[in-house]
Amino acid sequence: IDTYRGTWDRLAAKEDWTDRQVNLGAIAAFNAENHERGARVTAVTEGGPAAQSGMKVGDIIRRFDNNRIRHCEDLVEAINRKKPTDTVAIDIQREGKNMKVSVILAAGFAKAGPFLGISGQDYRDNKPRGVSIESVVPGTPAEAAKLEKGDVITTFKGQTIADLSELQEIIRGMKAGESAELIVLRGSETLKLTITLGMKG
Prior knowledge:
About 20% of the residues lie in helices and about 40% in strands. The protein is of the alpha+beta class.
């Protein structure tokens, strides 16, 4: 709210003070997880490049722009080498059948990379501090790890988490497909879970 109030005049004047060029990257607008035959699509953003090309949840990506995809990190690297508006050919396997789709990449303000699939906020009401989960996105690593709304992440990959920025910093240093243990508070319970990061791009 303070940020909204403090920037209202600039917003009302339609001023743009973001550094778009620094953060701009190519996106296909789908999520994926590691699969024994490549990268499996777990979510497709409605109206995005992947959806427009006909890609579906469950598709297994075998090649991206003629690059062999063995796991999610290969896919992250392949997407991040591209530019918005580039057209790429993607070889997929759907229900045992091999197919090829053509995707025109769009512009996004975050490059492809690893992600959990939660929205959260700093948890400072009590000790220990951490990240309180506000929502869990369907079809993401967070859902697969059984994380729930209201859980508080206190430890991630062996590191105590003080706030959301610390959690994000750890994830940025990881690779898509990498696993980590985390400790969460759920009511009066303390749970130890394992999560494997997916890919968003």
